[in-house]
Amino acid sequence: MTDDQLTQEQADEKLIDNAFQELLDRYLESKHRKKVEIITKAFNFARQAHKGVRRRSGEPYILHPIAVARIACCEIGLGSTSICAALLHDVVEDTDYTVEDIENLFGPKIAQIVDGLTKISGGIFGDRASAQAENFKKLLLTMNDDIRVILIKIADRLHNMRTLGSMLPSKQYKIAGETLYIYAPLANRLGLNRIKTELEDLSFKYEHPETYQEIEDKLKATQAERETVFEEFTAPIREQLDKMGLPYRILARVKSPYSIWNKMQNKHITFEEIYDILAVRIIFTPRNEEEELNDCFNIYVAISKIYKPHPDRLRDWVSHPKANGYQALHVTLMSNKGQWIEVQIRSERMNDVAEQGFAAHWKYKEGGGSEDEGELSKWLKTIKEILDDPQPDALDFLDTIKLNLFASEIFVFTPKGEIKTMPQNATALDFAFSIHTFLGSHCIGAKVNHKLVPLSHKLQSGDQVEILTSKSQKVQPSWINFATTAKAKAKIQSILKREKKEFQMQGEDILSDFLKKEGLDYNDQNIQKLCSLHNLKSADELTYKIGQKSIVLGDLERNELKEKPTGTSWKKYISFAFGNIISKQTTPSSTQAPQPLNIDKKKIVKLTPDELQKNYIIADCCKPIPGDDVLGYIDDNNRIIIHKRQCPIASQLKTSFGNRLLAVQWEIGKALNFPVNVYIKGIDGIGVLNQVTQIISQQLNVNIHKLNIESNDGIFEGRIQLFVHDVDDVNTICANLKKLENINKVTRIENFDDQITD
């Protein structure tokens, strides 16, 4: 071994020892029982197992398990069992050791968690990257065994996101997309607020690096101004709290870059138009456990005497905690400078739960079994019901789960006054299915606050809901359009699928009897003839229609099946065959095996005008143009489709088909024109339209393709479709239009008919 190698090895050993010592120091500062011996044993075992292995970044592999264990300990608040499992989480997958070896050395509990983590590991950072939806199903199934499996998996994902810089760009998009789609909502559902925010910000940073940096720079530039507002706003509040005699601390909470960007996207506004970047958090220590709730409301009463509260923006999560255990009182107050500022009032315990989620309950509840864990069990039960009735399509499954992952909650009451937690925007139909499948599948309407409403009626917090049923009622296909919860959607699809199967079986029997009676065989040729006759794509559709009685077999079918090939029909057949040959030549992708593309996924694909016109397709769902952050997706026909990175379809693709993604870069220059839609809104007046068209056509020399202007009560809204070269053109157009006196909103929209809400 050379001196250089020796020096490197010694440096690595020192780095590893320091990292582990830091983990132990942080563990010893926690409130957990001090089981240093078993943690050291797990570390030494993992260190030996991963000896000589390095991460893509070049650092020794063992530093990753140490970092995951540190996140589990310090940021989630887990104890020695979880720390050991985190240190060992990659041993079974990456080395020759088995779960049995772990069990013999560390006992059944740690082995069970390591086993759960091994089952859901999808080789995300290797070539074995599989469809994440399947891994996600396993992930949810293991949650039932031990919630710590998912908490450690989230810690693992957080460390991977923190070290994502060493990955290829196409892998970065896949991992960032899947983090935003699955892991951030999951962290949110488990109450890990700080981790959820960091996962979102890191995903945003890798998917839209320039936009992320712009927002960071603007936050830095406005920091001093925010600090002044914070000091002035909180001074009289501190005075009042001092009089109350409660120990407290007041913090400024600044909106995260991802939250800011998300609001800018959804509301079509600029950074400068976001007024809730600053919020104030009051964290107090109650006089005793029984007085915690009263102290919360006393603080609210005291501060609302100083500043006027917004009448519609009091959020009482203290009396009714969110499903993830979150408790706080949110009130929005009008500052002396005429600005609304949100104040969040929490006790120290509530703050721990807000930051560390379910892990914090173990800190406060000896022996467990809190009602918040009951909420978690309820959620897991819903997930398990969906898993027991699996969706055929992995993406459908993910979407179904996501409905329940990221939803805000409302509280509604049964006729007997029992409280039920439902996701925001839940309908009367969702409520019926949440109580019982039978109730949901036979409901005909509902009474909300004693008034009759349809099943599609959206519920509000505080509504009292009574479901009306009829034995003759059956699940309708249209219900799927207004069911919003995962449970209701899954049940409706399952019942419809079962009914369809029954109709198909009945149809098969009717068809079989008909063919037998006519002396014909039940074969593919005859089935195909009937499908062509009724313009149907498959035998399943045919039997379903027959079973449903929308096709009644008779003379028409008899004549088609018994028709002899005469001259005419022969001619018809020839032309049909010839037609197929032509279509084969013109559209090879639909009938021939797709030609493999020679693509080096490690390279960033350059989008030149020539390449774009020949080999690439601009996705119709998000219509990207040069300057947008984009990625490429290789579809089933080996075509490369260009999507915006934030496009909802691209989010699904990143999650389930990450290995088909490509990093792409625009190199179009000003060679091509692309259609783009712009929305404008302002005060109606004579000559406004003329000013708009003059700026676009004459000053900027841009071609207007489509224009729609509507005026109502002195306010006008307009939609303009233009042909531009790139995003810079769009920004120039928007900036120039904003300078017009009567116009107060100009924004780019994806589709000409998009609805814009203020």
Question: Which key phrases capture this entry?
Answer:
6 domains; Beta Polymerase, domain 2; 5-stranded mixed beta sheet; 758 residues; Hypothetical protein af1432; alpha+beta; Ubiquitin-like (UB roll)
What does this structure look like?
This protein has 758 residues and is of the alpha+beta class. The protein has six domains: 11-167, Hypothetical protein af1432; 216-366, Beta Polymerase, domain 2; 373-485, Roll (Ubiquitin-like (UB roll)), CATH 3.10.20.30; 495-563, no CATH class; 605-666, no CATH class; 674-749, Alpha-Beta Plaits. Helices cover 52% and strands 15% of the residues. The strands form five sheets. It has a five-stranded mixed β-sheet with strand order 1-2-5-4-3. Strands 11-15-13-14-12 form a five-stranded mixed β-sheet. A four-stranded antiparallel β-sheet has the order 17-18-16-19, with helices on one face. The protein is globular and about 90 Å long. 33% of the residues are buried. Mean pLDDT is 80; it is low at 122-130, 366-372 and 565-597.
